[in-house]
Amino acid sequence: MGIMQYFADHHDHLFYLVAGISFIVELTILGFGGPLLFFAIASFVTGILISLGVITGWEMEIFTLGVLTAVTALLLWKPLKNFQNSGGGADTSSDMIGKAVSASSDITANSGSIRYSGIDWNSRLDSHAEVEKIANGEQCIITSVNGNTMIVKPATRS
Description:
- It contains 4 helices and 5 strands, in the order ααααβββββ.
- The chain folds into 2 domains: about 5-85, no CATH class; about 100-155, CATH 2.40.50.140.
- It starts with a helix and ends with a strand.
- The relative contact order is 0.10.
- With about 160 residues, it is of the alpha+beta class.
- It has a 5-stranded mixed β-barrel with strand order 1-2-3-5-4.
């Protein structure tokens, strides 16, 4: 028996395979939040419904897959977007955190730069800093790292 005949005889296994491939592509390439996630969930649920004998026939299986993909997207789109947008917060694992450095340009809540280890790094004020800016040349402390941006606060309150 060839693979094509196997999947023709076992539709549920084909849907499980499609779900697995979709999950892998979603998680490795698209980054958990793209449309393949909804399709993968719907494929898995459709496979379960086929295994239980609730639905039969290609037409009904494909129709169920489409409806479940739409319902899954409607139910999960907003919660997943909120989850993605919540972020994990700033990185607190960097060995740069706590270092005193000089501002190499004025640092505000939106932009600026610091000089560390001979390199100018993008920076911005920590949201808890009680100043509007750190002037060029003033000392500041790195409080966290967000991507390639150093979050800083004044070394001494001015």
